[in-house]
């Protein structure tokens, strides 16, 4: 009987993964309101913890390497997930958002990102003892604000309602844009590492990265989204499309934008964000679908699954000194993480607060400066960096080569970036709980909620009324845009 039963069972690593992942997602779905609104926790840190627990480091049940998965799979998985998320950000922003708020977003993208890139590179150079191009490559992977982690905190929770709407929109718009706008920073470091002349570096960086990948990518995305909107309007008005296909159009257009961007060698994330922004610019589609919670479904399925995968592939063995990277130690990595969290965004956002129209108080500047999570976007960028270092193209080798002129850089960028992403996932993912508890005890005893950190009033020190917090429509399909007073 035992022999017969053992032949029927197929307990492979992949099958156990389906089982564990589905149980985790079902358990989270059962207690989602309690977890998000009582414990103030989001999906990414929980999903990452599940990946670590069942990954090779602990229980060794989920082991993607045993399935034959390689760097190219990681690259494509993160490409899809991040592209879908930035597309979703573009769709969910208030209609014609950038026509009114471009000065704030531009400040967050240009001086704030540039400062963060250079400061982080300086820390990496000094602490990890790398050369300057390697430091610039690593810092470029850590510069963008991750849209997946941002969405987990800024949308669909009691805490998000305590943050002024204009700040939520500004941070969402920044997270949608800056994964794509990080490509110029990444390729600046990559081109420097290739040892070509300064003139060739500037020429290649401007023509290939700025004009082709970024500028053309954004224009293609905007055009794709605009014409998709026109086409869907016609199909809907003439009853050519059924309700199920109408909803699936959202996902299909996101996937099309990824395919167009990747096939043409454009900046995938700017194509996807541009497509989402162009598609929902007039608010028509968001108004039609605002009760469907498409973005929330996408978050639960795709994003949580990818963070479980990230937890399972963390290179624990590379967080210690090796012959190829003797300066990588746990102490140095922890010190680097602390410095990045403290100085990557906070000082520059506080300094530029008077120049960012959507940030009205220094408490708001402190919140926006802290809230710069690093996640799956950085994971994609580090694989992109390794691919360029290994092959000179965006297609990585299955695994890092044994012998290569860029071997030291290739073996350094991966563990350093993964450790910082891991720290950011837990610290930023759990910071809502810390902010909520701190806000609870800052209140007079008579003004506190009966349960710990269950207040629903706006956070103190932020402007919530009179054009400061309620100045934007709740979704891009609302019609009260005229209420906004710049």
Molecular shape: globular
Main sheet specs: none
Low-confidence stretches: 467-471, 473-486
Structural class of the secondary elements?
mainly alpha
Please estimate the helix content.
55-70%
Q: End-to-end distance, in Å?
A: 76 Å
The topology string of helices and strands comes to: HHHHHHHHHHHHHHHHHHHHH
Strand content: under 5%
Q: Write down the Rg.
A: 23 Å
Number of strand elements: 0
Rounded mean pLDDT score: 86
Provide a count of the helices.
21
Keywords for this entry:
486 residues; mainly alpha; 21 helices; globular; disordered C terminus
Strand and helix layout:
Layout (H helix, E strand, L loop, with lengths): L1 H7 L4 H18 L1 H6 L5 H12 L16 H22 L4 H13 L1 H17 L4 H11 L4 H8 L10 H17 L1 H11 L4 H40 L5 H22 L3 H12 L4 H6 L4 H20 L16 H14 L2 H7 L9 H9 L5 H16 L15 H36 L44
Helix pairs in contact: 4-16, 4-21, 5-10, 5-13, 5-14, 5-16, 5-20, 6-7, 6-10, 7-8, 7-17, 8-11, 8-20, 8-21, 9-10, 10-14, 11-12, 11-20, 12-13, 12-14, 13-14, 17-21, 18-19, 20-21
Structural notes for this entry:
The protein has 486 residues and is mostly helical. 67% of the residues lie in helices and 0% in strands. The N and C termini lie far apart (76 Å). 47% of the residues are buried. Mean pLDDT is 86; it is low at 467-471 and 473-486.
């Amino acid at each position: 009987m035992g022999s017969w039963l053992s032949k029927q069972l197929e307990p492979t690593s992949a099958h156990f993964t389906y089982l564990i992942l589905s149980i985790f997602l079902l358990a989270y779905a059962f207690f989602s309101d309690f977890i998000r609104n009582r414990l103030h926790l989001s999906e990414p840190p929980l999903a990452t913890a599940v990946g670590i627990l069942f990954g090779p480091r602990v229980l060794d049940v989920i082991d993607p390497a045993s399935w034959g998965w390689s760097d190219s799979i990681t690259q494509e998985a993160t490409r899809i997930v991040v592209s879908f998320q930035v597309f979703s950000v573009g769709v969910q922003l208030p209609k014609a958002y950038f026509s009114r708020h471009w000065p704030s977003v531009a400040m967050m993208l240009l001086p704030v990102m540039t400062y963060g890139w250079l400061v982080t590179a300086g820390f990496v150079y000094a602490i990890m003892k790398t050369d300057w191009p390697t430091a610039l490559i690593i810092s470029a992977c850590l510069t963008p604000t991750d849209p997946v982690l941002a969405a987990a905190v800024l949308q669909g929770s009691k805490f998000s309602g305590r943050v002024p709407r204009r700040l939520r929109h500004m941070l969402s718009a920044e997270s949608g844009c800056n994964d794509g706008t990080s490509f110029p920073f990444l390729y600046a470091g990559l081109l420097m590492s290739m040892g070509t002349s300064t003139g060739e570096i500037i020429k290649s960086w401007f023509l290939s990265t700025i004009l082709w990948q970024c500028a053309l990518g954004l224009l293609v995305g905007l055009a794709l989204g605009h014409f998709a909107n026109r086409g869907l309007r016609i199909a809907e008005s003439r009853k050519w499309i059924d309700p199920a296909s109408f909803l699936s159009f959202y996902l299909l257009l996101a996937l099309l934008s990824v395919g167009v961007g990747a096939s043409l060698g454009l900046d995938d994330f700017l194509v996807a964000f541009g497509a989402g922004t162009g598609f929902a610019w007039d608010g028509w589609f968001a108004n039609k679908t605002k009760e469907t919670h498409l973005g929330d479904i996408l978050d639960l399925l795709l994003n949580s699954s990818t963070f479980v995968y990230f937890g399972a592939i963390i290179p624990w063995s590379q967080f210690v000194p090796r012959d190829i990277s003797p300066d990588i130690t746990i102490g140095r990595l922890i010190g680097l993480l602390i410095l990045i969290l403290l100085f990557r965004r906070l000082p520059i956002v506080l300094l530029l607060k008077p120049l960012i129209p959507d940030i009205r108080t220094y408490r708001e500047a402190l919140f926006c400066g802290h809230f710069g999570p690093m996640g799956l976007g950085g994971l994609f960028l580090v694989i992109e960096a390794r691919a360029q270092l290994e092959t000179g193209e965006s297609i990585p080798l299955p695994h890092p080569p044994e012998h290569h002129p860029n071997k030291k850089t290739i073996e350094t960028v991966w563990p350093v970036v993964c450790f910082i992403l891991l720290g950011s996932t837990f610290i930023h993912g759990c910071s809502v709980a810390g902010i909520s508890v701190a806000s609870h005890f800052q209140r007079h005893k008579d003004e506190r909620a009966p349960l710990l950190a269950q207040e629903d009033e706006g956070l103190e020190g932020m402007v919530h009324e009179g054009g400061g917090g309620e100045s934007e429509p709740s979704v891009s399909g609302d019609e009260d845009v005229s209420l906004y007073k710049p």
